[in-house]
Amino acid sequence: MKSLQSWPEPVVRVQALSESGIRAIPDRYVKPPSDRPSVVSSPMVKEVNIPVIDLKGLFVGANGPSGPDDPTLRQINEACRDWGFFQVVNHGVDPKLMRMMRESWREFFHLPLEAKQRYANSPCTYEGYGSRLGVEKGAVLDWSDYYFLHYMPQCLRNHEKWPDLPPSCREQIAEYSKQVVELSGRLMKMLSLNLGLPEDFLQRGFGGEDIGACLRVNFYPKCPQPDLTLGLSSHSDPGGLTLLLPDENVPGLQVRRDESWVTVNPISDAFIVNIGDQMQVLSNAIYKSVEHRVIVNSAKERVSLAFFYNPKSDIPIAPASELVTEDRPALYPAMTFDEYRLYIRTKGPRGKSQVESLKSAR
User: Fold this and answer.
1) Is residue 225 within 8 Å of 25, Cβ to Cβ?
2) pTM of this prediction?
3) Tell me: the pLDDT tens digits for 172-217?
4) Domain Fe2OG dioxygenase spans what residues (predicted)?
5) CA distances (Å), 310 to each of 118, 288, 304, 313, 349, in order?
6) 323-350 average pLDDT score
């Protein structure tokens, strides 16, 4: 990572482009025709949404779920196997805090540019205020800005990188991250049980108390030509689990389902949970990460908060031996998360090309 010291070209803030009143987006943001969002509705695409799972009562009492036949456990298992995406409600994170976080970050992105530039990031760690993923010179860019920061492990938590405006932002980040880490740990237990493993198996496989956790706040400005670009290109998340707090009022996330794209309709005070590449590797592809992307629009901006729950960066992640059989051999070689995410930090989002290339190489 340390070799990625600077961006290959001057960084342009997408929000500044949007607010300048341009009528056509620069060529750097125009996607190839095959990657553009379709403006034509296909009769083959049904109006569907990802599964919605109510977690109320799942963690009540010392014994937790009643057993493998617990209906909520079954729903989570089916969602992970069939979709790789689901929404959770009654999850234990304070809804008021969720709403305050989203509005505080919206306020941050509407600060004067010079105030935000104090936190400008570099590709060395990506931490701070940014506008591109990947360092390939001449790459086609996404129509978005973002803010990235570390929460765990403690040694990477740099409060100087946390914005001090608006005034309550740092305190909200700390409390929100604490609560989402707790929810992530509970979900890891549920996934472990559904794989027929001890409830602490996946957490231990990710490094126990030394797991990584980070937050990326996405800002998608209004776009004068939304049919030509994407807010975030198609990709699967490189880490373990992602818990996304979406913009409740403006849909934009799309999930690949077979050969179609399904637009997720966010539910109030819900998190959107998805499987990452490291979970696919550790589960030996019983659970699979799924391609997703973000579309933009000309009428409204969007703010979303993606919380990533990842393996410790320097431990090898490989298919669990308990999930490897003669009929289902190990599909992936061992690789540390540091080695793995160097790909996306270099090339930017590229569908599922990385994890699939590991599989095909064997």
Assistant:
1) yes
2) 0.93
3) 999 999 999 999 999 999 999 999 999 999 999 999 999 999 999 9
4) 210-311
5) 28, 15, 19, 8, 17
6) 83
Contacts for 112-119 with beta carbons within 8 Å, 24 or more apart?
A: 113/13, 113/16, 115/165, 116/13, 119/147, 119/161, 119/163
Q: Taking residues 71-81, what's their average pLDDT?
A: 95
Between strands 85-89 and 52-54, the pairing is parallel
Residues in the chain: 362
Dist CA 64 CA 191 (whole Å)? 13
SS3 content of the chain, % helix, strand, coil (to 5): 30, 20, 50
Q: What is the mean pLDDT of the chain?
A: 90
pLDDT confidence band for 136 (50 / 70 / 90): confident
Residue 128 φ/ψ region, left for φ over 0, alpha for ψ in the -120 to 50 degree band, beta for the rest: left
CATH number of 14-360: 2.60.120.330
Sign of the alpha-carbon torsion through 143, 36, 237, 173: positive
Give the whole-angstrom CA distance, residue 69 versus residue 168: 43
Instruction: Spell out the domain ranges in the chain.
Output: 14-360
The Cα 214–Cα 157 span in angstroms is: 9
